[in-house]
Amino acid sequence: MDTFLAIFTVFTQLDLLVLVGVGTFVGIYIGAIPGLSVTMAVSILISFTFSWDVYPAISLMVGIYMGGVYGGSRTAILLNIPGAPSAIATAMDGYPMAQRGEAGQAIGVTTVMSFFGGLIGILVLALAAPFVSEFALSFQPRDYMLLAVLGILLVGSLSSGSMIKGIFAGSLGIAIGAVGRDPLTFTERFTFDFQIMEGGISFIAVMIGMFGVSEALMQLQNVNMKAVRQKIDRIVPSFGTVKKYLPLSLQTSTIGVIIGALPGTGGDIAALMAYDHAKRVTKKPKVPFGQGAMEGLVAPETANNAAVGGAFIPMMTLGIPGDAVTAIMIGALFIHGLNPGPMLMIDQPDMFWFIVGALFTANIFMLIFGLTGIKIFTKIVEIPRSIIIPLILLLSIVGAYAVNNSITDVYWMLGFGVFGYFMRHYGYPLGPVILGVILSRLLDDNWRRAIISEREELGRFFHGIFTSPLSLVLFVAVILIFVSQTPLWAILKKRLFRKTS
Amino acid sequence: MHPEFRGDMDHHDGTSDAIPGGYVEKQRPGELAFAIFLTLASLFLLYSAYGISGFDALSAPGAIPMATTLVMAISAFAVVLRTARLKKVTTETLSKDILPGTVVLFIGFLIVFGLLLQPLGFVLTAAVFLIVAIKVLAKRGWGYTLAVALGSLVVIWIVFRVVFTVLLPAGVLPEAEFIQYFRNLMSAGAS
């Protein structure tokens, strides 16, 4: 009964309901304006909702998250610019559809399918998270350490972009997270004897710099690009269309939830795998894939919204994010004094169920706002970049300053902004950096706890790993992923293929 | 999908937040230099991590930093080797495609913004920044620039001070007195 009440907290308090609604609305538009992204919006918002009570702050951010994941599909369809990593696959068939003048239909189907996928994801989250969290209580520190390494490796290697650069980015994140006085022994790390570095680098400054400032600087190069005027008419799809793709969307939602639930993999990979799956199972598409096939739109969109619910499972039960956006959401929970992990479900079950309720509500708002207001939408998307860019920069500075009222954070933010700008240009993914910063503490603490409990002996540590099935599975996964990044793998593969041929 | 996929021709410059820039089989201007910089910086950090506690103990505060900076140095060096083997992109130059004048100018604006934020206060600094930035980017008349810049500043200021209650440096403007004046006005009207 308490659970039930907690889920519906959102509905009983009007202000929370309004905040989820406003968040979803804003999220859709932020995701849909080229040059603005969910990651940027949530990272800037963390610093502004800092002084709020936890419930309203979470309501707003959950709304933005849910709306943003969906909104990213709009620019993917209309402009071939994915608004979020999870919309990369959407652009492959969505943009050709828009070019044919079927943008309205593409958006309509995307909206309904996103809602459907989101619903399945939230259901699985509600059903599975309590079990996972109970299971997670039996995790040893070494398991957490292995999970964190696994998460960073997976994001580094699987997310779009070069693998080795992803690994570099992930370790850079861990190093950034280690700056300052070590919380256990109070030893200074990477402070170079500067007093301002003793407190460490504010992860919000890193986030805003990497996702806000660097993006805005990037957009400066396209400032004169004309906003594309799109004619969008009827968008509510017919029931027949929805019914036709229902079987496929069930399969792809399942893929989405499972991929989303793995630590370190999020909506982007889920969407790409679902797209691949749709390609394989659709024997005779009406239009070939890549030229505007409806299946190629349904699959990634159900999967990436289903992955939202999926990604919340490891995030809330283990404290391990699936991608950059969930990493930022963890940051948001930290800021409000919540500690995502198995204890969250035991100490504050209400908070967990409240978030489930908020996600559910946001999903409904997404459907409503997605299918209406297309007139305002085309107006908002046409705001010239010459106004948007200065505003993003202004918000970034204010956001970085607001958390600690410190000008030092503003400079960190600018530094990481310029650094991130170069990383973007040269193909280094930014997601793993944020993941590394968020997981740095968890990784460090658990490694030390694990090795101290084994009396500093590596032999005993590995003995522990090999005698626990869970640790062994995680360890093997880490090794496999790591080996697949090295030249050793290529040599092995060559040998194997020669044998089979 | 190619495992080294780094965006297509349309997005090679990292225009989209989702797709990192760069080409798979070519190096962009300055890419090699950046990779070398990262390698050297990683090595320096590795040295600094060694300085934290050396090879004291496996649980020492320097253990994880040393491990991560080692991974950084190795992966950055691998990137150097890989990048050096690639052909250069012939159609791009550093000053046109990677670091155009506008970007340098705006980085400068942001640094000045940071310097002036505390002494001048948020409202004045932001007003100057928005006016200059929009003037430079939009290349429109002063009327348009001032209207847009000040209009959006008012909205932002109201949102932050009222909705988010963010504390911003007041600087030289009597901001607090101004808010208090309105509060008095409102309460006078209410009573």
TrEMBL record, chain A:
Organism: Pacificibacter marinus
Membrane-spanning segments: 6-30, 42-66, 106-132, 144-176, 196-217, 320-339, 351-374, 386-403, 423-443, 464-492
Keywords: Membrane, Transmembrane, Transmembrane helix
UniProt protein name: Tripartite tricarboxylate transporter TctA family protein
InterPro entries in the cross-refs: DUF112_TM (IPR002823)
Residue span(s) of domain DUF112: 17-435
Record has Transmembrane helix as a keyword: yes
Source species, domain of life: Bacteria
UniProtKB/TrEMBL annotation, chain B:
Protein name: Tripartite tricarboxylate transporter TctB family protein
TM segment ranges: 32-50, 62-81, 102-134, 146-173
KW Transmembrane (keyword) present: yes
InterPro entries in UniProt: DUF1468
Pfam families, A to Z: TctB
Signal peptide: none
Domain DUF1468 stretches: 34-169
Key words, A-Z: Membrane, Transmembrane, Transmembrane helix
Species of origin: Pacificibacter marinus
Source organism superkingdom: Bacteria
